[in-house]
Amino acid sequence: MTEVYRRDGRLRLTIIGGFLGSGKSTWLRHQLHERSFGPVCLLVNEAAETSIDDLLLGGAEQVKVLAGGCACCEGRNALVAALLRICEKQDSTDGQRLSGVLLETSGLADPTAIAKTLLTDPVLTRRFVVDEVIVLMDAINGPLQLAQEYLGRRQIEAAERIIVTKIHGTPTDQVVRLVKTLRILNPAAEIEGAELGVPWQLPSDAAVRPYELPALPAFSEPIQSYRLDVSREAGWTGLSVWLSALLAARGDQIVRVKGVVESPAGRLLLQSVHRAVQPPEILPAVPANSDGAKLESNFIVLLGRGIDEKTLNRSWSKLVEAK
Ligand SMILES: [Zn+2]
């Protein structure tokens, strides 16, 4: 379990996405009741569909309704303002110290766009870290949303954790097919099941095939993960220059970058969402209860589509050799 408060004092922002009806509020209410996220402020950007009173009872330290439209598009400024107000409150001596903010997004939000807002705001990026993007999908309507909705696929691609809900009562075959399809759409995400907020075992069946999704214009190719070994000396600066150039040229194809790189300052965590790069973060040396296994570093994982792995490696080698 991670520490309640980050050592650098920044607040963790957890973005919770998923279509209307995917069970975000139910799931959240349960997590708050269990205090899974520690002392948090809940920001709800949902069109009056959520019963705030219920949520209050659930145990969030603070609940705020984010009006002014969907936080990924027309309500962007309202989101920035709300986050800044939370910072101000934290800086004043009254009020409880928070470990983070949970943002329950509107059903129509693209979590990537929200993460970008945060990563590109010079003030917010010093106060917040996008800790996790959690996307819920209900087993009943999920297959259709993936087949028909551009946004459904965007949300799944943005997720670091996907929670499949409403499993109970849905034909097992359908759940298995959905889970297999989700794995293809986002090979890097953790996929879990939940029923009324409680973890629920996902069924499996080797014989069941994933759905064949019809092509949507922007999704002509499946997303893939590419791993690049960056252990050869290019130096931290060389790497960041190379990565900026890569994102500038291929930002549309690259959905996300995550990597851990050794630097003179320690192990650095590197993250980006499309073209927005989060300032690198120094990771703690070795976790307290480590079993002594050597921590992996000097690798970058790229999630994207239409990237040629050979070209990627060649471009990296060129940089190293140019040194
Ligand atoms: Zn939006």
From TrEMBL:
<dbReference type="GO" id="GO:0000166">
    <property type="term" value="F:nucleotide binding"/>
</dbReference>
<dbReference type="InterPro" id="IPR011629">
    <property type="entry name" value="CobW-like_C"/>
</dbReference>
<protein>
    <submittedName>
        <fullName>GTP-binding protein</fullName>
    </submittedName>
</protein>
<dbReference type="InterPro" id="IPR027417">
    <property type="entry name" value="P-loop_NTPase"/>
</dbReference>
<dbReference type="GO" id="GO:0005737">
    <property type="term" value="C:cytoplasm"/>
</dbReference>
<dbReference type="Pfam" id="PF02492">
    <property type="entry name" value="cobW"/>
</dbReference>
<keyword id="KW-0378">Hydrolase</keyword>
<dbReference type="InterPro" id="IPR003495">
    <property type="entry name" value="CobW/HypB/UreG_nucleotide-bd"/>
</dbReference>
<dbReference type="InterPro" id="IPR036627">
    <property type="entry name" value="CobW-likC_sf"/>
</dbReference>
<dbReference type="InterPro" id="IPR051316">
    <property type="entry name" value="Zinc-reg_GTPase_activator"/>
</dbReference>
<dbReference type="GO" id="GO:0016787">
    <property type="term" value="F:hydrolase activity"/>
</dbReference>
<dbReference type="Pfam" id="PF07683">
    <property type="entry name" value="CobW_C"/>
</dbReference>
<feature type="domain" description="CobW C-terminal">
    <location>
        <begin position="223"/>
        <end position="320"/>
    </location>
</feature>
<comment type="function">
    <text>Zinc chaperone that directly transfers zinc cofactor to target proteins, thereby activating them. Zinc is transferred from the CXCC motif in the GTPase domain to the zinc binding site in target proteins in a process requiring GTP hydrolysis.</text>
</comment>
<keyword id="KW-0143">Chaperone</keyword>
<comment type="similarity">
    <text>Belongs to the SIMIBI class G3E GTPase family. ZNG1 subfamily.</text>
</comment>
<keyword id="KW-0547">Nucleotide-binding</keyword>
